[in-house]
Fold this protein.
Amino acid sequence: MTESKFDDEEGWKNDDFLAFVAPKASDDLSESEVDEEEDVVPKMDPYQLPPWMDHSVDMNQIHPLVSLHNEIVDFVHLMEPMSEEFRQREKLIQEVKDVVQSLFGTSAEVEVFGSQATGLLLPTSDIDIVIITQTKSEAVEADEEQTWEPSVSTPLRRFADELQTNWIDRLSYLEAIENTRIPLVKFTDKKSNISVDVSFDQPSGPPAAVLMKTYLNAMPVLRPLTFVLKYFLAARALNEPYSGGVGSFMLQLLIVAFLQHRERLAFNYRKQTVYNLGLLLVEFFKFYGLDFNYFTTVISVRNDGFFFPKGERKEIFCNDGRTNLLALENPLDPSSDVGKPSFRFQMVRMC
């Protein structure tokens, strides 16, 4: 992560970058209460700003949306990984490849996807890896003397056992999550504090990264908005799909759909498109927080984006009775709903 402009990060990060304390209006207080209030409520230093902001600029002299635009630009610059961080990540990926080849042979493929592949990674972002073992869900052969349970011989369990045996001293966290839509092995490297999510025989990840790179080239504002909104969700522990949150792919599709919708409105009403990042962020929150009808509408980003009623494909978007949740068509597989795992989306919406 780029070096911060201040060393005292503890003072701002725990407040989530905003001070929510507001004193009572002075008109409603007696003279003695005013004196007492002044003693209790600390004076807010107008120059005590987050470390990504330019402290030489007087924010009172700039339009709020322009100021927010500049803050987003500075925030992205601060959050961008440095070359040393990339080297640490690439080293860890290579070490995982070595383990995979020792377990499954050279025919096994290790592919990186997600934010590591698209470059949309925060300093705390996981490395997403899919291992194609060529064995699918079939059990691997074992010696007759060994009495493994059937689940132990799956690629996921073999990989988790290998880490448990030979990597345990270098890991601060290790978990095999099997009872989920996409089983994972999650672990964290102790030295670099980098977390890795490993799935098996799930070919959809790498094509999703390729698709997102296409959108990034077509929509330059997608990158800074993704950085800000990923951090916004991560700060609230709402960024993990397996716990009902919003994952990176889903978030990026939501941003793409919003930008497509905005362009359609500008075209239909013959308005000039404004690419102020502050304005875009505010409109994004308004669109998904207030305007969008989650009960009736499905989002699709195919064919430059469109909306359609859930009733047109009830078997996909209304089959579990949760009509108030987000319905988001997977552009790589229109028969699947990207929003289905996010059962806490209404909590996300209220943020």
Observations:
- The longest helix spans residues 83-104.
- DSSP finds twelve helices and nine strands in the chain.
- The first strand starts at residue 109 and ends at 113.
- The CA atoms of residues 47 and 58 lie 9 Å apart.
